[in-house]
Amino acid sequence: MPERLRVLAGDCRVTERGDRTRTHRGRVVVLIKPDNTTLVHDADGYQPVAWLTRPDSVVVEGDGAGFSVTARTGERRLRVVAEAATASRGLPVTEAGVPVGTCPEDGGSLVRSRGDVVCLDCEERWGLPAGASVTDTTCADCGLPKVRVERGEPFHLCVDPGCDPLVAAVRDRFDRVWSCPDCDGDLTVESAPGRVFLGCEQYPDCETTFSVPHGVVVDECGCGLPVFETATGRRCLDGTCDGD
Ligand SMILES: [Zn+2]
Ligand SMILES: [Zn+2]
Ligand SMILES: [Zn+2]
Ligand SMILES: [Zn+2]
After folding, report:
1. What are the sequence ranges of the domains in the chain?
2. Which residues pair with 91 in a beta bridge?
């Protein structure tokens, strides 16, 4: 169920108490967001006449004809009182993001928002690997969008990691491709929550690990490890290596 935005309107007395007290009177619209952020809008401009961002509490009382809203954060208080309401409704709202496709389960819109892809209907969300971009191709297995993510080379994977895990793709391509610089072992592809890294197969006797940079392999370093082209320039897999 989407969260609800309360919308109240009427001829209101708006009182703010904080460092000083201010009172407004007018036909205004009061918006109370799911996070309790309370905004009072009049007829003019984009800016609220009064507001309180994510207050500690909001109490809405109705007496049939009118309403009162009291929002508080510490010593600050915003109070809106209408003798007669012209509107009092709850409306479904979701976060808004860049459209990236359609949910195969319910046909809802998928948007990219705060590093996730989220369905606006079922509200399922899938976290994106760091640096991933959402493409306009879809997964042949589940119908979700595919993402492009660079870990040594570009991988095109389902946005659902359960369908197409990043670590499996990187392992298929780069497991044991490079040798450990500190012993005679190979580097194997391992994963920890939120990251893919290369670790020496001799662990725990050898504790050498490198996180896989977000970029593509373009060269071999003098030290024998690969050189990655990343958003911030070229670098050896070993971030402490100076290049030869
Ligand atoms: Zn959905
Ligand atoms: Zn899939
Ligand atoms: Zn080693
Ligand atoms: Zn190097």
Report:
1. 3-93, 98-163, 170-236
2. 5
pLDDT digits (tens, 9 = 90+) for 157-175: 999 999 989 999 999 999 9
Residue 219 Cα to ligand 3 midpoint, Å, equals 22
Ligand 4 center to 202 CA (angstroms): 20
The two three-digit tokens of residue 17, written as one number: 């108490």
3-state secondary structure of 214: coil
Class of 3-93 per CATH?
mainly beta
Listing DSSP states for 19-62 in one string gives SSEEEEEEEEEEEE-TT--EEEE-SSSSS-SEEESS-SEEEEEE
Strand partners, 117: 112, 126
User: What global pTM score does this model have?
Assistant: 0.76
Whether the link from the prior residue into 55 is cis, omega within 30° of 0, is no
Residues 6+ apart with CB under 8 A from 168: none
Q: How far is the CA of 109 from the centre of ligand 1 (A)?
A: 7
Chain-centroid distance, C-alpha 209: 28
Q: What is the pLDDT of residues 45-58, one digit of tens each?
A: 999 999 999 999 99
